[in-house]
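As described in the Methods, two query proteins were run sequentially through the folding procedure within a single session, without resetting any intermediate state between them. The first query and its resulting structure tokens are shown here.
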Amino acid sequence: MKKIALGPGRSLCPMPTVLVGALVQGKPNFMTAAFVGMVNAEPPVLAVGLRPARYTLDGIKASGGFSVNIPSAKLVKETDFCGLYSGRKVDKSGLFTIFYDKDGKVPMIEECPLSLECRLIQTVGLETHQVCLGQILQVHASPECLTEGKPDPVKVDPIIYSIDDNKYWRLGEFLGQAFTLGKKLKKDKA
């Protein structure tokens, strides 16, 4: 089947939906973001793309730390709310039970199954976004989202965002074990 050229776009589908947290002027603030992903294994580093006007970005740059909280589908309304309203005008900290890193500088969300505590290591300015590179210092996990001591995607129940139609989704079905399925294909081709 022939592909249809759609031109340049943001169609990396699906995208995770996260709540980025930072202290801004001494108060915890959270914003919704979907431009996020792992960019290094050791040490673990993630990238979050934020528009320069975002209130949370001010706090990240001032404090040098931030959190990436993975909300479950049951927090979809609160997550959307945090993307609709700026912390400059609305105090969003009351939506959640907040806990902090050991230094009290990185706010995280108790209700989110996973919270990643990050140290800002660099920002990169692009045309529309500032990319914050954060070294993950600690992963905080709710016990009920773990299977054999590791985060279980089904139990985390993350919110997935499709940018082209502005819709939130849940994960689908398990397809198979990574780094195993391809080996079967090689045997079949041999």
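Immediately afterward, the second query was submitted; its sequence and tokens are:
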Amino acid sequence: MADEATRTYPPDDRGVHPPWLYPPYTATIGRAPHRAPLNVSPTATELAVPPSPRGWPVGSDDLTTRSGAPPIGERIIVAGRVLDAAGEPVPGAVVEVWQANSAGRYVHAGDRRSAPVDPNFTGTGRCLTADDGTYRFVTIRPGAYPGRSHHNAWRPPHIHFSVIGGAMVTRLVTQMYFPGDPLLDRDTIFLAAPEATRDRLVSSLDFDLTEPDVSLGYRFDLVLRGRAATPQVHA
């Protein structure tokens, strides 16, 4: 089994991300490689800056206005910056999010739980970061839902993020959690991240982002590489 020393993260990223094999998170048992990875140099295409998709919102996207009626649940704002290893903003980064609805149900054929589907909420959004690296989403706070890793497991409310910075090789896939959630201490996906980096997966309540009488605001910065990188967390 490949160990942490054979992973292909840059040296400064080691110790930031979860191991491939983390038995308490049972899905990794089948996913983890059984041989050491090959060191393959990225192609010119992978190193190229992806073109800005036409028609995508720059800086902000609203997941609550996709239909004629508002979705059910607590409206929230999630915003932050995408940064590189030096802490500098990354403009034009592609930021995509997906999440469960307020009842903990995804709009996906693989989600067959009895929780209701909200016809006014797809749970997906995307935008490009502005010149200062900022992004902003208006959405609904997702609900918790049953997990599979252990008896009576529940996944804490979370939002999935995919970020592509200046090149395909800088892609970050992670999850954002909410502060003070008691389910975090039992979530094997969250606990798979090294203890010293877990706080980077938890957003902070930010009243500068909050809109009075409308939405609470949560700040979540995303660091693509380096010792301060946001851990890669896959579902």
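The CA atoms of residues 56 and 146 lie 33 Å apart. We note this only descriptively and draw no conclusion about the first query from it.
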